[in-house]
Amino acid sequence: MGRLSALFDPESVGVVGATDREGSVGRAILENLQETYDGEIVPVNPSREQVLGLECYSTVTAAPAIDLAVLVVPPDIVLEVLDDLGETDTRAVVVVTAGFAESGEEGATREQRLCERAERYGLEIVGPNSLGVMSTANGLNATFGPDSPREGSISFLSQSGAFVTAVLEWADEQRIGFHHVVSLGNKADLDETDFLREWGDDPGTDVIIGYLEGIDDGTAFLETAREVTEDTPIVLVKAGRTDAGAQAASSHTGAIAGSERAYETGLEQAGVIRAHSVQELFDFARALSGLPEPDTDGVAVVTNAGGPGVLATDAVGDSRLEMASLSAQTTDRLADVLPEEATRYNPVDVIGDANADRFGDALETVLEDDAVGAAIVVSAPTAVLGYDRLAETIIEKHEDYGKPIVACLMGGERARAAEQVLRGFGVPNFFDPTRAVAGLEALTRYREIRERTIDEPTTFDVDRERAQKVLSRAERYSDNRVGVESMELLEAYGIPTPASEVVSDPDRASEVARAIEGDVVMKIVSPDVSHKSDIGGVRVGVSDDEVASAYEDIVARVRTYQPDATILGVQIQELVEMEDSTETIVGMNRDPQFGPLVVFGLGGIFVETLEDTAVRVAPIGESEARDMIDEIQASPLLRGARGREPAHIDAITETIQRLSQLVVDFPSILELDVNPLVVAPEGVQAIDLSLTVDTDRLEGDEP
Amino acid sequence: MGRLSALFDPESVGVVGATDREGSVGRAILENLQETYDGEIVPVNPSREQVLGLECYSTVTAAPAIDLAVLVVPPDIVLEVLDDLGETDTRAVVVVTAGFAESGEEGATREQRLCERAERYGLEIVGPNSLGVMSTANGLNATFGPDSPREGSISFLSQSGAFVTAVLEWADEQRIGFHHVVSLGNKADLDETDFLREWGDDPGTDVIIGYLEGIDDGTAFLETAREVTEDTPIVLVKAGRTDAGAQAASSHTGAIAGSERAYETGLEQAGVIRAHSVQELFDFARALSGLPEPDTDGVAVVTNAGGPGVLATDAVGDSRLEMASLSAQTTDRLADVLPEEATRYNPVDVIGDANADRFGDALETVLEDDAVGAAIVVSAPTAVLGYDRLAETIIEKHEDYGKPIVACLMGGERARAAEQVLRGFGVPNFFDPTRAVAGLEALTRYREIRERTIDEPTTFDVDRERAQKVLSRAERYSDNRVGVESMELLEAYGIPTPASEVVSDPDRASEVARAIEGDVVMKIVSPDVSHKSDIGGVRVGVSDDEVASAYEDIVARVRTYQPDATILGVQIQELVEMEDSTETIVGMNRDPQFGPLVVFGLGGIFVETLEDTAVRVAPIGESEARDMIDEIQASPLLRGARGREPAHIDAITETIQRLSQLVVDFPSILELDVNPLVVAPEGVQAIDLSLTVDTDRLEGDEP
How far is A672 from chain B (nearest CA, A)? Predict the structure, then answer.
């Protein structure tokens, strides 16, 4: 057991605010504890001498040793009790009391003070506003919920106490068992990451599942979850996904909703399997807690029912799994064990008159095949098929071959007993073939998570000092927006840019243009002009002798359309002409939870409208950068489809990584766009740049 | 009752092949009939005098009048029995016997003969290879399945008999009742469309649901379903969606799988609501059979449980529904009836200590609000909330306000009784908030289907004779592929094309180019060259004096790269230069089930790779053509986003319709591509064309 062992395996539990008043939370907790808890129960309440037959103490200091203190006193008293606890050996505390950050300003201040005390006394506090904690290992139910879970290997964290009470009775009916359960409440002290860490090391936990509305510290979460998922799968429902939901979530327990795209990316990078409904959460948990991982993605469907078999096959086709191609040997063997009218290809149809033994023969034959990583048994009820016997057969084959099997014994009452038998051996049974496939898919997803290698981000040799100098100039500009005049920033980080200079008179413009080979591009440089082209602030392909007059023209146009704009000059830039080139975008947004999110995508207005982009939380390693390129839909074109020369993928990969390094090095960069980054077979060129700098954080950028 | 009344409401049922042999299909059917059927049962079997206590007749001609004959005789005997039935008054027949088209060549021939007899004697035949038919109105269970359905208003067709047996017992447990059930078998005679027509007129059917692997006649289906869905919703699972599934489906009952995109489009245009799993099929059916349609898309969520409330809100955000904005009056009233800590905005959180009355007050208040079209009640179990009382409250409000309410009373056993009460009044209860929202969404989807107007396709004044002349030339070309030399085809149908001519020598090329204003585009004309640009067969922006040498050059290149290509000449085409223009594609593919599928999408290789297209089955009316333009993701750009002039939407709309008219007029056109169709603010221009003609069908094109 880890740091939080006292929370789940206490030898004694103190209930501070214990009472025998009917319908009270204090009584409910005490009764739950009395029902199944193995350890000592210590009621604390200055106005009682006995509660429900137990001796009651006036304060925690007067009470015998308490491993875990559960507080159900009024909000005002909570801080006092924490002070008292500071004097005892108690370190694990659950604050059930509400009336903290979730309920206005006064509550928020109170929560602040609670945190200070946690720090001061070294307390590990769950809550406030928590339903409590449970552990089936020792019968601990320190909650005021109406149900206790059955024993199992799923550990469950929830930001909503109601979510726990809503699922426990149902889960019991479904024979889904739990190891530890915690209702996080307001997460003033302990949060989701603490429990991931705790359960990741806990041999009693096979799967961690959770309901979250927000993640407090994305960076810590990502790091911890990556480690934990090497051994233990994590499945989460992140609620508040949609605008409507996020609004609801933030009025609930005061969670601050990060942007959905950041969560999607962050959870994916963390190796978390995401569920989008209660049903999915438990379907995935059921598969992950009872079944071995499949070695390959090939699935065999064995069925006595044409239609449901096709539905399972469709679901496999929709998933990341695939229908296994059975070997010739397998189909020959199937021909031996099945009647002539049966289908000996995948899906294997053992046909309507099959009994459990025929199912068993077919199942055994497909499981022998190396192409088969997992099997789904789909059956419709018939007069000749005994479901109990079929369940036994499935378990037999499951144990013989060690490959995951999911069952789909359709029917109502007649499938019930068989279902119980299957579940007892970890084989989930679903009425709907689509859900059976989703369960298997979760296993495959987890195998991929375990097998992935996360490479260390490359550290390129860059000129940080020069970059910092460029950024510090941002203070001069309105809104701290920096533009094309700061292309030096990219140069400092080794990102290729065309030759360019910002000039402030027509003569110098001509001089610079002459020094550059070929025609040039001219762009207005102004922190106030965001759409340069729209107001005539850009000229492409200007010859040397036109440059001076073009300068006057550009400045005049900008003055006409935006009289108030500060004009810093005009950029004279080499005209990039690479064959088979494509405009892309690379950029960064800083997310409050997860930090710098790097974006790569195709440029040009049509493709931008189609939003064909890939996102990762920085820092980004080489293989992740490559994944980003492959992830966009138009990737085949960059890779050379349709008779085009492939773009210089290595150069794009490096640019993404160098940009990642830049935004990690400088927390003062709030957002950044390189648009376009022109990519071509011969390399890449960053043509335009804009970024916003948080000048208050410039100090934090240490060169 | 309709044409098929004898199938579902017979006064007598003959079982041909009736037997008392244990475990036989003939006995199973007879027993099912004996169990609940109101009418007369007539066993027919030449080798029995009595079967299960009923008098048995040697032939159908010797038997008393039979309204519905169920055949369970060996395959060879089926045709003889049909001949006998031809002499009687019997017209409704179910052929349970297998061994027809699903089982090889001999069976296919047998099925052919069965169809001939259906035609000859005017028989209405279900099957062969059918499980049978059921009607709960008169207790008819003429199947060999193990279960009988409970009474209800859902009529159910299935191409898989096993699918029927797989769901019936489960549905009974879920208190889902049926009116008619038919297992379609091989659909040799009667198919899905016949039953849609029948049940569309049937007052006992509120919802039609089905499991299909293929649709026999897409055009008839589309037409019938459009009509039926004006009054009766249709929900279908179309299995064999994925490549893997389609392969499985076609080995099952010999269904020919149409392309998935065609089905998707065809079913959508038909007004069919598509389900993607068994669970969805019944979730939708449950909502559609018990609840009224909502007037608006606004949904109110009333909950005592933060987390589950957020999940419901997320699901609403993901759906086509929206969270209703409650009026100030409503929130004021909520403030009156709810405690201070409750949330009086949507989702309305009545908080954990709410009893059923408080739920009722909140529910009543939100239902009063015109912005609320439907409500979802989400509850976690608590000590103070009685689920039975809550169910009664919900039903009370449901009846008072006539607005649809879906319940999500979470929990296990304790929710069971309440669930039964709710279902008894048509209010579905789901454990998972996501499913509750999906149920409501089906109602909204059906409202949209009922409200939509399908406008008659415009008939443009075109030159059919000229078009036909162009098409008839296709016979001369290899593979009957016609290219840019036939732009006249588009002209004949009033689709704008640039000035052009196909020439076969350099001098004529120069002459033509001079007659065209500005530079020209030159393209090789050859039925054998499919990627003209790739081999240097296209030159853009050629000035008049370069034309002759460009001609020689193009021909030489094509001869080098494709020495065997037949060269018909070179097209000299006006260079289209429209400001703010965009390349699009408009084309057609002929689907074996649904006929001509017209496609509109953006062109250019990047956007083609992103597959941003809209599809419709022709003929296409004006509003459908407009919908196609709006449906593509890049539509905002055509409509003038990002500072662009909007494209000439009317011209695009007309071009889509004219193309639709062309491909409907000429069934000989197998596929056709106008790529690109350049669209701009001033209009459209078809730049390039290719099509394939079925020269055997040229006769069918009547000008």
Answer: 20
Residues near A429 by Cβ (< 8 Å), separated by ≥ 6? A406, A407, A408, A409, A415, A418, A419, A422, A423
Residue B475 Cα, gap to closest chain A Cα (Å): 30
Q: Which residue of B has its CA nearest to A638?
A: B606
B614 interface with A at CB cutoff 8 Å: no
* Interface contact flag, B308 A166, Cβ < 8 Å: yes
Write out pLDDT tens, residues B86-117.
Answer: 999 999 999 999 999 988 899 999 999 999 99
Pick the residue from chain A with its C-alpha nearest to B351. Answer: A162
Distances (CA, A) of A310 to A167, A234, B167, B647: 32, 31, 15, 45
pTM of the complete model: 0.92
How large is the ipTM? Answer: 0.90
- A641 and chain B in contact, CB less than 8 A: yes
Closest residue of A to B174, CA-based?
A: A412
| Spatial contact of A56 and A44, defined as CB atoms under 8 Å apart | yes
The number of residues in chain A equals 703
B61 with B75, same domain: the answer is yes
Q: How far off is chain A from B428, nearest CA to CA, in Å?
A: 17
Average pLDDT over residues A247-258: 54
Question: What's the gap between Cα A402 and its chain centre?
Answer: 30
Asked if B606 lies within 8 A of A582 by C-beta distance, the reply is yes
Do B189 and B202 fall into the same domain?
A: yes
Indicate whether A481 belongs to any domain: no
* A325 in contact with B, Cβ within 8 Å: no
Tokens of B680: 């701009």
Q: Do B314 and A239 touch (CB under 8 A)?
A: yes
Judge whether B614 and B631 are in contact, CB under 8 Å.
yes
Domain range for B328 is 292-451
Cβ–Cβ gap B304/A162 under 8 Å: yes
Nearest to B111 by CA among B89, B150, B78: B78
Comparing CB atoms, the residue among B172, B253, B306 nearest residue A412 is B172
Q: For position A236, what pLDDT does the model report? A: 98
The answer to whether residues B166 and B313 belong to one domain is no
The single-letter DSSP state of residue B49 is S
- The pLDDT assigned to B23 comes to 85
B491 domain-assigned: no
Number of residues that this document lists for chain B: 703
Domain with residue B678: its CATH number is 3.30.470.20
Separation in Å, CA of A241 to nearest CA in chain B? 6
Is some CB atom of chain B closer than 8 A to the CB atom of A203?
no
Q: What is the pLDDT of residues A116-143, one digit of tens each?
A: 999 999 999 999 999 999 999 999 999 9
CA–CA distances in Å: residue B631 to residues A577, B612, B626, B638: 36, 9, 9, 11
Task: Give the containing element (helix H, strand E) for B314.
Answer: helix B306-318
pLDDT digit string (tens) for A336-391? 999 998 999 999 999 988 999 999 999 999 999 999 999 999 999 988 899 999 99
Please indicate whether, in this complex, the C-beta atoms of A433 and B277 are within 8 angstroms of each other.
yes
